[in-house]
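User: Let's play a game. I give you a shape written as tokens, and you guess the letters that built it. Ready? Here's round one.
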């Protein structure tokens, strides 16, 4: 069955003023929609058809640019929408908080490290909080639509929090002020979802 563009679960204007409605609508329908359609076209009639996106990415041939770019774009955005929420976001707590504090010393130090990864990713890409077997967490960044599920991209673990730092994610509202966008992102992080992903991945 072909991949489907996932619904957001909230209105396009629900994350304002942190992320504006017009950016959300274009980002979801045009960018994510485009990746979804092109991924389906890239795998149609191949051995990848019918596999989950996680199976595709963890066994990816990085030389397959169409699947790498569009499969990554499909997965990354699906995660991105789910780790944001205007309501019932929860807080960094429980086992996830313990893992973050063990790795970074404090919640504030984690946010600083994550923000730095996002701010210093040259050009387009993503910042990730990843979990490893046993529960340890780490931060990394990837270019373009790469993510830590892909083998050999220099970023390992299962991503549980991701921030899109492509200009299309923020430029209408923030222009070149990427740090302001990064700071705003923390206002809408759905920590309940991140904690659920952590528990399932560790």
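Assistant: Ready! My guess for every position:
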């Amino acid at each position: 069955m072909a991949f489907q563009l996932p619904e957001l679960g909230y209105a396009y204007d629900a994350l304002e003023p942190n992320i504006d409605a017009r950016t959300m609508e274009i980002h979801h329908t045009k960018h994510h929609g485009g990746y979804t359609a092109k991924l389906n076209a890239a795998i149609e009639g191949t051995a990848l058809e019918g596999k989950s996106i996680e199976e595709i990415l963890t066994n990816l041939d990085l030389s397959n640019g169409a699947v790498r770019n569009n499969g990554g774009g499909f997965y990354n955005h699906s995660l991105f929408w789910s780790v944001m929420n205007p309501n019932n976001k929860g807080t960094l707590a429980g086992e996830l908080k313990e893992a973050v504090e063990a790795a970074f010393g404090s919640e504030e130090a984690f946010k600083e490290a994550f923000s730095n990864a996002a701010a210093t990713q040259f050009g387009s890409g993503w910042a990730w909080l990843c979990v490893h077997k046993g529960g340890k967490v780490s931060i990394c960044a990837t270019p373009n639509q790469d993510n830590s599920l892909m083998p050999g991209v220099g970023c390992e673990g299962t991503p549980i929090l991701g921030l899109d730092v492509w200009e299309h994610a923020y430029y209408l509202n923030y222009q070149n002020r990427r740090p302001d966008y990064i700071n705003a992102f923390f206002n809408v992080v759905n920590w309940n979802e991140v904690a659920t992903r952590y528990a399932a991945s560790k």
